[in-house]
């Protein structure tokens, strides 16, 4: 297969206060979420002047990738398009068509399987191509990378750096707490052809990062950033509840490592650096938050290697045992049942 471009696929985020509500309406489009609920979430963004850091983080990643590609002879122009905010993927795909692109490789900023993390990016691609119409380039999404050394090693380095900020005398009662975005239980059950792929991959990533970073410590995988109505079950426990449990069991310090994310966007800097940190302070727990990969050189190199897997037939580095594939089975990870508008 001949590829002639690269496109970074991401979530998108507001960049000024007036962007916040339209962005949030895009995130929940078709789901009948009332504006009052969105106004609550908007508050989190307003603590940061209505600016999510995610777009700048993607600009930084794109710039690092261009340098990395140039240094390794990968001659693909790099584009970027989002699901929920500008630059919107449909506009990017129109630009790619105008530039004569025929078949691009797409890298989504999520390591895992599941609807929000994987399938929805395939849907974004299909919708953007349909919007552009005849002449729209094909886009093949690169594979999931939850156990790639270029993902696991930067996470492990982040845990080790975070541990250095805690009291070494209390290491024996320090615990690693890995977090990922909670999803509805029904969504988790249909993630991947055999189900539960999202959770299973996260469990494997947690195991690998723990082994590489601090095998002497105990660890858990818990969930953050739950939304949706309370009567709908989502993956539990929530990180805040879990800190409470740990404090009751004699744990004195925690390192919280958000392995579910590739950069320190709003779900990290609000839900962890504010909410979970406050919870820890209330419980008297020492607290350190480990970094996400961001533009760590090994992570940037990983993206380039994932491209070369498709162009140069290279090996597929993997530290874990769960299988990976280039094209997801058509019936995996269906969207959640749509809620009716109230
Ligand atoms: C699995 C997963 C990831 C990780 C994979 C990936 O990265 O793709 C992720 C990432 C993110 N989620 C983000 C923000 C939001 N997620 C929401 C809502 C939801 N997320 C869900 C799942 C996930 N989300 C789900 C099942 C919902 C319920 C509604 C729905 O089914 O869509 C809402 C709506 C308001 C609310 O109800 O809380 C917001 C604002 C941001 C941007 C942060 C920034 O701006 O910096 C990022 C990177
Ligand atoms: Fe989300």
Would you summarize the structure shown here?
By secondary structure, this protein is α/β, with parallel strands linked by helices. The protein has twelve helices and eight strands. Strand 3, helix 5 and strand 4 form a beta-alpha-beta unit.
Structure write-up:
The protein has 342 residues and is an alpha/beta fold. It folds into two domains: 5-145 and 297-311, 3-Layer(aba) Sandwich (Rossmann fold); 149-289, Rossmann fold (3-Layer(aba) Sandwich). The chain is 43% helix and 13% strand. The chain has twelve helices and eight strands. It has helices at 20-27, 35-46, 54-71, 89-98, 115-132, 149-164, 185-189, 197-213, 239-248, 266-269, 271-283, 297-311, and strands at 5-10, 78-82, 103-108, 138-141, 174-181, 218-224, 253-257, 286-289. The strands form two sheets. Strands 2-1-3-4 form a four-stranded parallel β-sheet, sandwiched between helices. Strands 6-5-7-8 form a four-stranded parallel β-sheet, sandwiched between helices. α1 crosses α2 (35-46) and α6 runs antiparallel to α12 (297-311). The longest helix has 18 residues, at 54-71. The radius of gyration is 20 Å and the shape is globular. The N and C termini lie far apart (48 Å). The site of coproporphyrin III has 20 residues, from α1, α5 and α10.
